[in-house]
Amino acid sequence: MIEAPTGVALAVDPLVTRVLAPNPSPFTYTGTQSYLVGTSDLAVIDPGPDDPAHLQALLDAIAGRPVTAILCTHTHRDHSPAAAPLKAATGAPVIGCAPLTLNDAGLRADAAFDTAYAPDRVLADGESIAGTGWTLTALATPGHTSNHLAFALTEARALFTGDHVMGWSTTVVAPPDGDMAAYMASLDKLMARDDRIYYPAHGDPIENPRRFARGLLGHRKQREGQILRLLREEIGAIPAMVARMYVGLDPRLTGAAGRSVLAHLLDLRARGLVQAEGDAWKLAA
User: Fold this and answer.
1) Sign, CA torsion 24/11/199/92
2) Across all residues in the chain, what is the average pLDDT?
């Protein structure tokens, strides 16, 4: 496990430096990890929350070097708000995911969308930017959010996975914007790649990417099977499902678990396997 002092610039690869934001929580683990890519000129991935101490830590790590781009994987409030003050301090353009504002503060405070995010350029799937000794290519990975991007660092065979794949927990997929079918398809997309390592926004680097992604796919399929078994037992209310499926869960995470169950149910309904009946669910007739 990586030691994770807040605000300290930690080299995790010759081309990659990590700076941890001071926003630990049950959803962010030790906090959001911002990454600096490059040695002479830099890209900053996921600048993090709008926190003056974190902004100063990023500027200290940048150490006066030119910043080519500020890249955001998605627009949850623990990832993109520092882009604007970092742009003001460095002059770098904000590049990456598309803007997305959704009135969805019910899950958790730090998953609210960043309404002020205003990119100078949106990267399409497969589009690249480059600096001295580094190339970053956008990889569309919707599921956690519809605008989520990962960024592949060609020279290190590394993938910055944002919240699509995390190093400490499974990803929350919360409707209405979170989509389980899209999330699973994005995992399949990662399985077809040959990345050497993942650098997630939360948690440790992942050194066996394909095996890890395969495990996430298996976990989601196991959850799907649990839901279908509960429906066969005529347990169709989401709170009752969560109580059976997530034994010993931190109560602060109950709402998020319910949203992930709902995401599975919506996917199963789209496939014709279940149907809603009021506030409850049942197997399709």
Assistant:
1) positive
2) 93
Spatial distance between the Cα atoms of 31 and 22, rounded to a whole number of angstroms:
6
Task: Indicate the pTM of the whole model.
Answer: 0.93
Burial class (CB in 10 A: 0-12, 13-18, 19+), 127: middle
Among the residues of 4-82, which ranges form H helices?
52-62
Predicted confidence (pLDDT) per residue in 43-61, tens digit: 999 999 999 999 999 999 9
Is the omega angle on the peptide bond into residue 176 within 30 degrees of 0, that is, cis?
yes
Burial profile 47-77: b = 16 or more Cβ within 10 angstroms, e = fewer: bbbbbeebbebbeebbeeeebbbbbbbbbbb
44-48, 99-103, 160-164, 269-273 — which is least confidently predicted?
99-103
| 3-state SS class at 282 | strand
- Report which DSSP code applies to 138: E
Task: Considering the chain, tell me which residue range(s) the CATH 3.60.15.10 domain(s) occupy.
Answer: 10-207
Whether the per-residue pLDDT at 271 is higher than 70: the answer is yes
- pLDDT tens, residue by residue, 143-159: 999 999 999 999 999 99
Contacts of 15 by beta carbon, 8 Å cutoff, 6+ apart: 37, 38, 39, 133, 134, 153, 155, 156
Q: Report pLDDT for 29.
A: 84
- When the candidates are 3.60.15.10, 3.90.1200.10, 3.40.50.300, 3.40.50.1980, the CATH number that belongs to 10-207 is 3.60.15.10
Are the CB atoms for 125 and 138 separated by under 8 Å? yes
Provide the pLDDT for residue 25: 83
- Dihedral sign (CA 15, 164, 184, 129): negative
Which residue's structure tokens are 């150490």?
A: 63
Q: Is 228 helix (H, G, I), strand (E, B) or coil?
A: helix
Provide, rounded to the nearest whole percent, the portion of the chain with pLDDT above 70. Answer: 95
Q: For 95, phi and psi rounded to 5 degrees?
A: -130, 145
